[in-house]
Amino acid sequence: MNIPNRITLSRIFLIPVFILLLTLPLDWGFWAIGTTELPVVDFVAAMIFIFASGTDWVDGYYARKHNLVTNLGKFLDPMADKLLVAAAFILLIEMNLAPAWIVILIISREFAVTGLRLVAAGEGIVLAAGKMGKWKTTFQLVSIALLLLHDFPFSYIGFPAGKITLYIALILTVVSGIDYFVKNWHVMRDSK
């Protein structure tokens, strides 16, 4: 197994650690930040999430730079991304930091696009992610991190950065999903 795939696997192995931190009854205290309190366990979970999210860029860059792109990596990388993001969003609902309806729309879009990609793959067609999809992912990751950090460092001024980026992520998620299906509808139409 090459280095990029090992990096991707490390991201997958961090997901249970991230989940356990946020679901076990751990009380490591709080930090007073601006007008809110940030639980230390949420901060640690946010750092793990940020690190795991960063490995996505690292493994892709390394694989392309050293010509180590593999079919295993093409499978593991998007799966790891979706598992990490879905786990984080679901936990944010449980923590009362994100509305369930937004998370349902975001995760539903991911399932729908993955389904379209599977249909395309069955036809021998590779559907690449567009720029809007990359922006969608960026805003999803930033919103998750900010919500886990209870808006730190923006909490000093009482600015709800997490919620704002979450709504931007929602808009980009819906618009990019519609755009993706419109541009690739021929795959569904022509599939056997």
From TrEMBL:
GO cellular component: plasma membrane
Keyword Membrane: yes
GO biological process, one term: glycerophospholipid biosynthetic process
Record key words, sorted: Cell membrane, Lipid biosynthesis, Lipid metabolism, Membrane, Phospholipid biosynthesis, Phospholipid metabolism, Transferase, Transmembrane, Transmembrane helix
Enzyme class: transferase
Pathway: Phospholipid metabolism; phosphatidylglycerol biosynthesis; phosphatidylglycerol from CDP-diacylglycerol: step 1/2; Lipid metabolism
Organism: Natronobacillus azotifigens
Residue intervals passing through the bilayer: 12-31, 43-62, 83-105, 164-182
Name used for this protein in its record: CDP-diacylglycerol--glycerol-3-phosphate 3-phosphatidyltransferase
One Pfam entry name: CDP-OH_P_transf
Subcellular location: Cell membrane
E.C. numbers: 2.7.8.5
PANTHER family, A to Z: CDP-DIACYLGLYCEROL--GLYCEROL-3-PHOSPHATE 3-PHOSPHATIDYLTRANSFERASE 1, CHLOROPLASTIC, CDP-DIACYLGLYCEROL--GLYCEROL-3-PHOSPHATE 3-PHOSPHATIDYLTRANSFERASE-RELATED
Similarity section: Belongs to the CDP-alcohol phosphatidyltransferase class-I family.
One annotated GO molecular function: CDP-diacylglycerol-glycerol-3-phosphate 3-phosphatidyltransferase activity
Gene it is expressed from: pgsA
Catalytic activity: a CDP-1,2-diacyl-sn-glycerol + sn-glycerol 3-phosphate = a 1,2-diacyl-sn-glycero-3-phospho-(1'-sn-glycero-3'-phosphate) + CMP + H(+)
Topology class, membrane: Multi-pass membrane protein
Function (record text): This protein catalyzes the committed step to the synthesis of the acidic phospholipids.
Tagged with keyword Protein transport: no
